[in-house]
Amino acid sequence: MKSGICPKCGSDEVYMGRTGSWVGVRTNVLHNQWPETYVCIECGYYEFYAIPGYDLDQVKKRLEKVKK
User: Fold this and answer.
1) Beta-carbon contacts of residue 40 (< 8 Å; ≥ 6 apart)
2) pLDDT tens-digit profile of 4-54?
3) CA 40 to chain centre
4) Which of 11, 19, 18 is nearest to 41 (CA)?
């Protein structure tokens, strides 16, 4: 998504802002900051990315790792 191309549908109608919220992550884990949110206007797919400076070690301690 950061490239401006949606990985799901291939559209270039991708928009970015610092809005939304982390699903399942308390905001105090991320210092009450909003993540970068990328949204495809064509298919509705979206992604959140941590902004540099987030304490990602705290996220790692509090969330469950996705198993392969």
Assistant:
1) 1, 6, 8, 9, 11, 13, 14, 46
2) 999 999 999 999 987 655 554 554 455 556 678 899 999 999 998 877 666
3) 13
4) 11
> What token pair was written down for 47?
């992604």
In sequence order, what E strands does the chain have? 14-17, 36-40, 46-49
Q: Model confidence over 55-66: pLDDT tens digits?
A: 777 777 877 888
pLDDT at 43: 96
Lay out the sheet containing 36-40: strands in order across: 14-17, 36-40, 46-49
CA separation for the pair 50, 42 (Å, rounded): 24
User: What is the per-residue pLDDT for 1?
Assistant: 92
Contact 29, 58 (CB under 8 A): yes
